[in-house]
Amino acid sequence: MKFSFENSTRIHFGEGQISQISKDIPKDKKVLVLYGGGSIKANGVYDQVAAALAEHQWGEFSGIEANPQYDTLMQAVEKVRAEGFDYLLAVGGGSVVDGTKFVSVAVGYEGEAWDILAKGKTSPTALPVSCVLTLPATGSESNAGSVVSRGNSKLFFGDPRVRPIFAVLDPKVTLSLSPRQVANGVVDAFVHVMEQYLTFDHNAKVQDRFSEGLLLTLIEEGPIALANPDDMAVRSNVMWAATMALNGLIGAGVPQDWTTHMIGHELTGHYGIDHARSLSIMLPAVMQARRKQKGAKIVQLGQRVFGIHSGSHDERIDATIAALVEFFQLMQVPTSLTEVELGSDAIAKVLASLAEHGRQGMSEHGDVGQDELAQMLELAR
């Protein structure tokens, strides 16, 4: 497929790289540092950022949620407008980065800024964004996408102007993450790769091999990150894999299928299920429902990633899906709706929300409708 690829984010990778902030943000910029619940003050990241900004004029905004909420972000927008900040520095995980991207475009938007998400409106301006990443998962540190929540709605927007100018990736700061956060990050990155890889045979061998390498890395390193949480080499590999999973490279010129994510967003919006855990619940069910359309690629995944080389076509598909479930279980995440105490009522609610948000014609073939979405949710039970 024809494609244009660009990724302009400068990556500062490695221990102690937060100090690079002082060089990369112009001294004449008034910087607003945005972060979440305050863990960066406990793990020393805040102090490193403050030291790096010693020669800058800067302020801060805290309280961005794990699923960044529109109303909270609009408070940050008002702060930017009132105090004249002209550079945004996100310090935290992907949700903080996503929220900061929205603030970037909402500041200059006249009218209801939710329209950027709900109606695809474009802002005339966007403030420069950079970030210090503390939780590897979403890839938001080097892409142009963002997901923001408002009530039960969790919506996406993309704008090339909000791709971070630079991103600091210091694996050492991830040592303070909880096992749940580590597991979620690995699974989120894994499914990002799968949404771009698991479609049909398109002969894009470079993208396929990159994807398979990332999947293998996450399968190898994810369980070790839980078992040996102080292993810096493991944390480094996980952090870099999560960035590479969604910086545009493996998705360039290939069909993609984000059905798992779209259903997962509804589960998170209605029931507060961690984003990654909504994905681990739905991906095996999506694969089962689409085994005919994705069969060749599922068999390829089984062979190249899970080492499944024998059996009939259908047996290899079954074995590959079982291997995926086993990996998710090793990462201590749920693989069914029952495990998060959801049943038929939840399925009805999620289907209604998918219809309300226009989630029709999904998949790499654009042929997933309401009936197949219902089948996927039933398979996830």
SSE pattern: EHEHHEHEHHEEEEHHHHHHHHH
Distance between the termini: 36 Å
Shape: globular
Structure summary, number of beta strands:
8
Short description:
By secondary structure, the chain is of the alpha/beta class.
Report on the structure:
- The protein has 381 residues and is an alpha/beta fold.
- It folds into two domains: 10-173, Rossmann fold; 177-379, Dehydroquinate synthase-like, alpha domain, CATH 1.20.1090.
- The protein has 15 helices and eight strands.
- The strands form two sheets. A six-stranded parallel β-sheet has the order 1-8-5-4-2-3.
- It is globular.
- The model has no long low-confidence stretch (mean pLDDT 97).
Structure keywords:
single chain; 381 residues; alpha/beta; 15 helices; 12% strand
Produce the secondary structure layout.
Blueprint: E1 10-13, H1 21-24, E2 30-34, H2 39-42, H3 45-52, E3 57-61, H4 70-83, E4 87-93, H5 94-106, H6 115-118, E5 129-135, E6 145-150, E7 153-158, E8 166-169, H7 179-197, H8 205-227, H9 232-245, H10 259-271, H11 275-289, H12 295-304, H13 313-330, H14 344-356, H15 370-379
Parallel strand pairs: 1-8, 2-3, 2-4, 4-5, 5-8
Antiparallel strand pairs: 6-7
Helix pairs in contact: 4-5, 7-8, 7-9, 7-11, 8-9, 10-11, 10-14, 11-13, 11-15, 12-13, 14-15
